[in-house]
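Morning!

This is the sequence you dropped in the shared folder:
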Amino acid sequence: MTKNILITAGGTIEAIDRVRSITNTGTGKLGSLVAENLAQRSGVGNIYFVHAKNSCIPDVPGAVMIGIESAEDLENVVRKLCAEEKIDAVVHSMAVSDYRVRAVLPAGEAGNIGSQELMDKFDKFDILKTYNKIPSDIKNPIILLEQTPKVLPIFRKLLPKAVIIGFKLLDNVPHEKLIDTAYRLLISNGCDYVLANDYVSVESGAHEGFLIDREKNIKSRKGKYEIADMIAEAVIEGGD
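The structure's back. Tokens below.
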């Protein structure tokens, strides 16, 4: 059976104002390698590569490239693709920001007040309601963040029969905690696999990835090319 595959990659960007933003260290390199690996395999149909603005782009002629910036952009694109296209597998490697900017308040407006009154102040004095760019003469602006919607749970709801691979990145934690956290993510989001990484190994250049399935079996590979190969194998072999 030919499989159409949706891959997300790179780090999302959340605007502070029209010229400033919050982002992360996601490069999209691993996601691009997965796309290139899959493109060389039999049984692969269309590849939809949803990438952040500054993401690595795979060398895959014929792949559908879709650029996004924010977590909201990603959710909109995912919902549209899943509704309009036949998607058989998802590799959600994108580093999606957990937070976006709700409002910006000059520090002088905060004062010594309680949390609810402070929230009211944010709504009343939000600089972004007046300026597209925060004036540089405002000292110590306070930025109020709010959580972005989670995209990973959406895939199972929209694609009940697809192979879904999620990613979990922690930083400098015991191996058991890394595996347990990734497995909880797998179960709570209906994934078939989760790729667990520790940022210490990513940053060191000796990247090691652990692919966990629903029975908590674990495979591991070292190096981005080998990890991409392991993920591609799971995409092809998983499902019906």
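Headline: The mean pLDDT is 91.

More detail when I'm at my desk.
O.
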